[in-house]
Amino acid sequence: MTTLYYVPVDEFDRVLALDIPIERRCALFAALCRINTLYMIMRAGSGHIGTSFSSLDLMCWIFLNELGYQRPREAHHNDIFFSSKGHDVPAKYSALLGLRLLDFDLIHKLRRLGGLPGHPDISIPHMYTNTGSLGMGISKARGMALARRLQGQPGRILVLTGDGELQEGQFWESLQPTANQGLHEITVVVDHNKLQSDTWVARVSDLGALERKIQAFGWYVERCDGHDFTALQRTFAQLNQITDRPKLLIADTIKGKGVSFMEHTAMPPGDDRLYPYHSGAPDDATYARAAEELIIGANRLLSEMGQPALTLEAVQQPARSSGNHLQRLVAAYADALVKAAEHNPKLVALDADLARDTGLIPFEARFPERFFECGIAEQDMVSQAGGMALQGLLPVVHSFACFLSTRPNEQIYNNATELTKIIYVGSLAGLIPGGPGHSHQSVRDISALGAIPNLLLIEPSCEQEVALALDFCINRTAESCYLRLVSVPCAIPFSLPDDYELEYGRGIELTPGEDALLFSYGPVMLAQAVYAARQLAEEGIGLKVINLPWLNRVDLEWLQATLAGYRQVFTLDNHYINGGQGQFLASHIAQLKLADPPRVHQFGLQDIPVCGTNDEVLRAHRLDAQSLSEQIASVLAERKTR
Amino acid sequence: MTTLYYVPVDEFDRVLALDIPIERRCALFAALCRINTLYMIMRAGSGHIGTSFSSLDLMCWIFLNELGYQRPREAHHNDIFFSSKGHDVPAKYSALLGLRLLDFDLIHKLRRLGGLPGHPDISIPHMYTNTGSLGMGISKARGMALARRLQGQPGRILVLTGDGELQEGQFWESLQPTANQGLHEITVVVDHNKLQSDTWVARVSDLGALERKIQAFGWYVERCDGHDFTALQRTFAQLNQITDRPKLLIADTIKGKGVSFMEHTAMPPGDDRLYPYHSGAPDDATYARAAEELIIGANRLLSEMGQPALTLEAVQQPARSSGNHLQRLVAAYADALVKAAEHNPKLVALDADLARDTGLIPFEARFPERFFECGIAEQDMVSQAGGMALQGLLPVVHSFACFLSTRPNEQIYNNATELTKIIYVGSLAGLIPGGPGHSHQSVRDISALGAIPNLLLIEPSCEQEVALALDFCINRTAESCYLRLVSVPCAIPFSLPDDYELEYGRGIELTPGEDALLFSYGPVMLAQAVYAARQLAEEGIGLKVINLPWLNRVDLEWLQATLAGYRQVFTLDNHYINGGQGQFLASHIAQLKLADPPRVHQFGLQDIPVCGTNDEVLRAHRLDAQSLSEQIASVLAERKTR
């Protein structure tokens, strides 16, 4: 058990009611928000502390003063404010909760079903657009501004961006037209905390002469300390006077601001360690130290104003499970990649600022000259890989599946038309983790990439199969490959034989069963399928579960033999049903010449994924073992057969 | 009949052998290349004259001097030169042919099967990367340069880009890292002809302070007249001395340079007509005038050098067919959109520099304030549409299907998660026209977009259905829609009833037949299917052809009823089989509870589309009526049934 603390809403009321200068009220309000932001992330077990803290003072300034919410009746209801980076949303929630602009009970429901999504979603009040994939903010704002002009509606649009985000091409694509159109309604605030996901922006992909660059695109640019409310007051006053062009404020901030040991400035410049508080909840002891520091700091501010200390609420949080015996596919991949690279000097690895999350830290350490950090610039990374392949290298290209399959989609196809060999590795694939929300839940990548000729899609089900799949991609096929990796650690109720080998287009039985057949892939869905099979076995129903790691290939001879005797076949996708493996398989089953063709039932996503804990999300989409076994039993109960 | 003229290769030999100053040799060589470029485009019936002519002098300078091919033995074989824009490839071919670096007989085979593809493809010698979709050039070059450094290989990399191309985000995304890495091997030459596909770059999406912008990204920048060989000599000498950073030359050029009335400078500045020679072959009379001017010019240069006039070869080209009674879906769409906009004041149209090709000229003329020209910036356009929809407008977003479905793929999904309504219209969809090559043949868009929830995909089969489909998208559904439009004018051997209405998820019979059923969509494949049905009818085989315009939706009740009695079902996609309508349908057929399920055979693309005339391309992929009827007859001949 750990005790978590949060500031109740009436304490925010107290701060807002104080007759003190704006900058002091903001500082106090932000101090309270930091306590609650940390609480929400701890309670959720995940979230982005570093960027929430770096942007909190900016958010508070904007809400209280630019949007006028320190006196709600005076608020500028025509103004729009949103964050383009989106992973700072716990900070925004804490401000909205403190201003009573959201039901305060939601403070306990970050990343929970029916609660507050892990990235902004317009289903929540005061969220004006869905963000979480980077670089779209100015484009969205321009569309809003043009629509408002056309409809004669007034109002400013304030967009918060990250600095790593400025590596995205779309940011630059959107700058010049916004200036050409003189859209002075738009003010962009760059939360320039100097660190991106993995480490220093300057190390990942330096932004160069940022002010000069943005000025050259025709914008009015200011720069100030993003934690100095006096400077923010002065600078925003200046920005608000410019009425002939769009405006951008480079706000120098500190990642993790407010907790001494989380502040990036605690890392000496040139330190090449990874910044440890980008994403994820801290451990209990770290939380306790951080919370204590935040509470002491807030009380000091109150005391300086002659105010009594905070009255806090406390919540007991159960200890998190230790995670023994979990399959960690990304870690297994990390090992396998280093081993493969030892045998293949042509192998190079490319990353888009997710080296930690895609398993590239060991590779970078072992082969620094063969590691290419491309920054948050997926299109550039993929075309660069194309150039490398044309010059004889074997590029292995990494990002989260949601981004890799979509942002450089045309670039991947262009590479494919050159018939070179490139391996794409998309991690964080599938419906869970359910916390980050739909921008990060990659449930459309099989569809987005599956039709590309000469591109083989494989998803391994366990650590053992990861190594085999990578070996297959590198050594056993001439095709380019997309390796789809689940990132969430999984307990799996099955194992593969020690002498298991991948056979092209073929699968392997995980559970025996005579009554029905189920095809699936990957640890998440196969675990649910095997649990469902156990449940059904107790009811006297035999479900044969097959692990078929090939997502867009199948051996028709094997398929025909496997189907023999089965009248009911199920497919289970960690993906939308449309364009998933199940649809691919069903269409091939329909092609076969079978004496008695089975009926094929497809499980998978049909709607945009909900946000919540992993269990909540699987259940909500009826993809958990219990829901699956019920649905399968119900189909088999019909048994009038087809 | 028209007489077309070309310069035989020995005339190029003559020019290269002349002992004259470099700049004069280049001018003469380029003059000959222009005649042949025009010949190739006339012979092909399509191609890009304007940009081929604006870049020709640059290309000739680079080939003869930078790459040293005026004396082939002295050529810098380690150097790489490619064009990122790619549609100037006729110019590059003409130079390669004149230098005997390609089999000269290929001069007659631009855009023909087995000939020279409509955009660069590495299957052709001296083509180093596939281009045709814009903005990838510097990224590709950087990958090549890094691969060469890693492998200890020397050599420069020269990349030619367009200026409209600089609107693409990937261009800017690639600039800073290239400078950060000090990749001085890379020299980029911008063919700054001031016009993009439709009209003036400055009108479409002004580039702003181009030199200052690129310098701010850390590049060395020079600027000179791209038709002045003395200036090119001086400027390249300067560029080649810079060895600490990448270099970019802004070459001021004239679109259509060399033919007085094709030069963009013949349009007075501020002229708001569209530039008429961006793409497509001119009519016969225009060709004759242009060729005469080019030949006179070349002979004048020769005469100045005391040389006899050119000996030309002549070829008779049959008159092109008049194109009566063709279905022109884009024109029908253009009319329907204006009518719809008259009834719906919220409707706005967005374009990415293809207003002419996507049917937006009448809309822009009628509703200038509701027309948004976004330039070649598809990601920005789509997110902007998202912002507009959030503010209450109904955005209709246009580009070629190949670009719209892929470049802003993540942005379309992001919009879809907001549950707003947006209509995307992708023209140039499908396998033909076969001339532009695989970068433009959109045969992956159904797959790339089909899994997006709340996004309905529709492809109309004729002008009549275009209007109905647009009406459905606007007035009869709450979902966002992707309207897939074939651009090539088609003769169609079928018609729809006068009182035809679209029924959600349902199709309509075009030919009767008892022996087999075929589902397809769109004018291209339905025409082939109906011709195949007629052929089969002569052999006593009845093929029922159904037009099913819904690409990712089907009414299961209708499907079940339609299938009754058929043992053999065919699907026919103007798309890869993977992820196409056929796969979608087959997977739904496999779901149905049928007494006697049919076997489903899928026709569609399995390989990267070839380049050629429309007939060549359909036949090469066995998707023409003759091939289809043979394959269907062969399946039915088995008739042992399934």
Protein topology:
The structure is a homodimer of 642-residue chains.
Chain A lengths: L1 E5 L2 H9 L4 H23 L4 H18 L13 E4 L5 H10 L38 H14 L6 E5 L7 H12 L5 E7 L8 H5 L4 H7 L3 E6 L3 H13 L5 E6 L31 H21 L8 E5 L11 H15 L3 E5 L9 H6 L4 E3 L4 H13 L3 E7 H4 L4 H9 L5 E5 L17 H6 L4 E4 L4 H13 L4 E5 L23 E4 L4 E5 L2 H16 L4 E5 L8 H8 L4 E9 L4 H11 L7 E7 L8 H7 L4 H14 L4
Parallel strand pairs in A: 2-3, 3-4, 4-6, 5-6, 8-9, 8-10, 10-11, 11-13, 12-13, 15-16, 15-17, 17-18
Antiparallel strand pairs in A: 1-7, 14-16
Helix pairs in contact in A: 1-2, 2-3, 2-4, 2-10, 3-4, 3-9, 5-6, 11-17, 13-15, 18-22
Description:
The structure is a homodimer of 642-residue chains. With 642 residues, the first copy, chain A, is an alpha/beta fold. Chain A is built from 22 helices and 18 strands. The first copy, chain A, has helices at residues 9-17, 22-44, 49-66, 89-98, 137-150, 169-180, 201-205, 210-216, 229-241, 284-304, 329-343, 361-366, 378-390, 401-404, 409-417, 445-450, 463-475, 523-538, 556-563, 581-591, 614-620, 625-638; strands at residues 2-6, 80-83, 157-161, 186-192, 220-225, 247-252, 313-317, 347-351, 371-373, 394-400, 423-427, 455-458, 480-484, 508-511, 516-520, 543-547, 568-576, 599-605. In chain A, strands 9-8-10-11-13-12 form a six-stranded parallel β-sheet, sandwiched between helices. In chain A, helix 20 (581-591) links the parallel strand 17 and strand 18 (599-605). The longest helix of chain A is centred in the first third of the chain and has 23 residues, at 22-44. At the A-B interface, helix 5, helix 6, helix 8, helix 13 and helix 15 of A face helix 5, helix 6, helix 8, helix 13 and helix 15 of B.
